[in-house]
Every structure is written in structure tokens, then in C-alpha cells.
Amino acid sequence: MPKRGARWRRALLAVTAAIALAVLASCAPGGTAATPPERAPGTAVVVASFNFPESELLAAIYALALMHAGIPARLQLDVGPREFVQPALAEGLVDVVPEYLGSALTSLEPAADVAMFDPVAVRRELARALARWHVQVLQPASAQDQNGLVVTRATASRLRLRTVSDLGPLAPRMVLGGPPECPQRPYCLPGLRQVYGLQFARFVPLDTEQERVDAIEQGVVDVVVLDTTDGYLASGDLVLLADDRQLQPAENIVPVVRAAAVARYGARLAAALDAVSARLTTNDLIFLNWRVTVAGHNVLAEARAWLERQGILPEPG
């Protein structure tokens, strides 16, 4: 394993403390736990999420599927950003993380020489990068969560917009809204300029997806950057433009799993996780995100309901 610096050690200490608090919370009344809190320490597969709702949904879905397969699982939600979760995975503090192919690889190998839009190539390179931590990459889902450009349905109809390329001649008269870091991110404003030649009249930084949706609905901006699985896309009032020149990397959902957990539970573990990935689609994520982030439903309840609709869990009788 590569030599670690002080920054890495501080991140590891922080995530250790965060997970310790999460374990205590999972054992308290009302805490989030995918298994009974009395389960013997060390036997459960710890399924962790990043610090945003979609990741929590995915972790809950995979953890419940493991439990149904007879594998003890403990769910640790909101562990933190990738800078916290990856050290936890490397050190064996967590066993399973629902990842995103391109983002995971870029965080480990920023200069990876691979066609980033090709999920097969990205998965192969990610497996190589994670092997040093004794972590395996299972089968990706067809579901992807990428950066996307969105316009209102009225704008798409009026200007006949279907793809990002269609914005080319119009961009100089349009205002783009997006996350504040967009001007520095290679797959956001710099990539839109380089790959598509888009030169927007102005960029407006907007912190949250709610701010971006409000801004485009009120005409403050003409185009916004949203996740391609954003729950607000379920309303039908917004149109996601196709990334026809493949700027965005493949961001298929994929479970990454410590080899020790695979060795402990054998083929049952991979089969349970792969069964989820085989059924999970981008449209599923849009609907689930709408249920949780827009309609305000409970993460665990929505995860269980999706598994029941897919026939992975039995419906309540």
C-alpha cells in the first residue's frame, strides 16, 4: 500500500470517529440499523453510504438484499464524502460501498489512461486500482448518475433542443446555472467548452439542486447542471439533454466489496449484490430520489419497497 501522509491519517482518524458514532447511533432507539443491534460484533457486513440521499438509498437497498440472503449486514449511513469513505474501505472499517464507476476511478487514478465513457474499461481499471486494498469490484448496474444539462420543457420545445450539441449556436445568449465548483471541474464548464464549444453568456453559482430548479423555473437561468438521476426530473417539467459527444464518464452504480467479506460469505454475497445491480435502472433512481428528496419519504421504507417491486424481497402478506 502506498505511503500515507498526515492528511490521509487525519482523514482516517476522522472517519474512525464518525463510524464509531454511527455504530452507537445504530444501537440506540430510533437509530438506523439494517440488522438487530444485538448481532455479534465483527460478523456483520458493514454497508456504508456517502453523505447524500441517493447514496443512502443505494446502501439501504444493498444491505437489505444481503439480509434477505441470510448474510448479517449493518448499515452505516452518511459516513461522509469519498475522502472519508475510501480510507474506511481501505482499512476494513466498512465492507461494501455502492460506488460510481467514473468518480471512483478518477479519485484514485486522476490520469487513468482509459476511455472514461466505456463502463467495461472503467470497471477493469477500477478493479486494478482497488486491488491494492484487497477490494473487489462487482457487476455494475445499468443505472448511472452523471452530470447533465437540463432545460425546461417549454424551452426544449421552443428551441427544438434534444442534445447538448443543440445548445451550440444558442449558448452565447443563455445563462447557465450550476454548482459553484462547476467552473473548475473538468466534466462541467471546462469540458462543455472543450468538447462542445459552448460559450455561455454567464454562469450563476447555485449551491443546491432546489436552488437550481427554482432558478430555471423562474427564468433566472436558461440551463442548469443537475444529476441525471435528480428527483425533480420525474415531474416531466424539465428535459435532460443527451450527452451526444460523451463528455461525461461512465458513472454506473457498482458495489465495491472487501475481499475478506467475500471470503467469509462466499458466492451468496456477490449473488445478492449482483441481483440488485441487474435490476437497478436510471429511471428507478429518478423515481426513488423523487420519493425521498422531493416527496420526503423515508430512505429505508423506499429501499424495501423497491426490493419488493423487483421480487427480491417478498411483499408483505
Give an overview of the whole structure.
With 317 residues, the chain is an alpha/beta fold. It has two domains: 6-144 and 250-309, D-Maltodextrin-Binding Protein, domain 2 (3-Layer(aba) Sandwich); 147-240, Osmoprotection protein (prox), domain 2 (D-Maltodextrin-Binding Protein, domain 2), CATH 3.40.190.120. Helix content is 43%, strand content 16%. The chain has twelve helices and ten strands. The protein has helices spanning 6-27, 53-68, 82-90, 101-108, 119-130, 153-159, 189-196, 209-217, 259-265, 267-279, 282-294, 299-309, and strands at 45-50, 73-80, 96-100, 135-137, 147-152, 175-178, 202-205, 223-227, 238-240, 253-258. The chain has a five-stranded mixed beta sheet with strand order 7-6-8-5-9. A three-stranded antiparallel beta sheet has the order 3-10-4, sandwiched between helices. A two-stranded parallel ribbon has the order 1-2. Helix 7 (189-196) links the parallel strand 6 (175-178) and strand 7 (202-205). Helix 1 crosses helix 3 (82-90) and helix 4 packs across helix 5 (119-130). It is globular. The termini are far apart. The model is unreliable at 1-41 (pLDDT under 50).
How is this fold's topology laid out?
Layout: H1 6-27, E1 45-50, H2 53-68, E2 73-80, H3 82-90, E3 96-100, H4 101-108, H5 119-130, E4 135-137, E5 147-152, H6 153-159, E6 175-178, H7 189-196, E7 202-205, H8 209-217, E8 223-227, E9 238-240, E10 253-258, H9 259-265, H10 267-279, H11 282-294, H12 299-309
Parallel strand pairs: 1-2, 6-7, 6-8
Antiparallel strand pairs: 3-10, 4-10, 5-8, 5-9
Helix pairs in contact: 1-3, 2-10, 2-12, 4-5, 11-12
